[in-house]
């Protein structure tokens, strides 16, 4: 656009694609939230292009913004990627189920990006929702920010026959771009803000990013992400995945929500403890919860302690705040 370079007196600071574009913070579900100084202009440009290429959006697609834009999910999707595609984005001032559903009906939304807790709530209240709201314009739901179990997906597809589910995966440290257990990006030059120890433990000497996910690759080359390494429960040398037990608990008709944490024990190291939200009007007992799970899993995976709560603490992106539940569970030890 300019034939000659601007004079030095007119340019105070030069910005290039490898400069830091944003300072985002990790979710802090298992420990303190960390400032992530990795979102360069190059990263964000690449992410916008990824969103555009991945969805191949038709003219007239309409999205409902249900997640905060100060998290990577909201930033790369709503604040940048979808706007760059020319799609309509309807932003909710705050999340409430009624507001979201009535907005879908009013604006004839076609895409509903959300987090698993909202999707679970839609499954549990499907009969009432379908009677009260017209969601016929909706053809796709996008889930991200936390794991979504097979059981919940099947339940949603059974209740909302014309809506397909897409799962998105990424993390703040990679500017939202999906990665495997180790990932490398061309422009990876930064780390955690004022936290060299955390940077060293996450980025190796060749700048590969350790995401902390437990996954496997099947014979067809597909990667399956099954849990977080930091969240595994160590029972007598066995590793128990909380996400597996949570998915199983959510299949019980009297359970609205659940979270599983490691509970310390002198003999076995740790065992699974469940926090459970009962469906209103039901009085399922601790014994019934443990028996429900115990008949479907190996002995070392059995839940050995249950507490009932009004709600499961979660951050704005829908991730369970396990550190809060662990603190609550161990406060009386």
Automatic annotation (TrEMBL):
Transmembrane stretches, by residue range? 70-92
Indicate the segments forming the AMP-dependent synthetase/ligase domain, all copies. 12-186
**Could you give one GO CC term from the UniProt record?**
peroxisome
Pfam families, per database record: AMP-binding (PF00501), AMP-binding_C (PF13193)
In this chain the AMP-binding enzyme C-terminal domain maps to 244-319
**Presence of the UniProt keyword Transmembrane helix in the record:** yes
Alphabetically list the UniProt keywords.
Ligase, Membrane, Transmembrane, Transmembrane helix
The domain of life for this entry's organism is Eukaryota
**InterPro entries the record matches:** AMP-bd_C, AMP-bd_C_sf, AMP-binding_CS, AMP-dep_synth/lig_dom, ANL_N_sf
The molecular function GO annotations come to:
CoA-ligase activity
Cofactor(s) the protein needs: Mg(2+)
The family classification in the record reads: Belongs to the ATP-dependent AMP-binding enzyme family.
Which protein, by its recorded name, is this?
Answer: 4-coumarate--CoA ligase-like 4
Q: State the organism named in the record.
A: Hibiscus syriacus
What taxonomic lineage is listed for the species of origin? Eukaryota, Viridiplantae, Streptophyta, Embryophyta, Tracheophyta
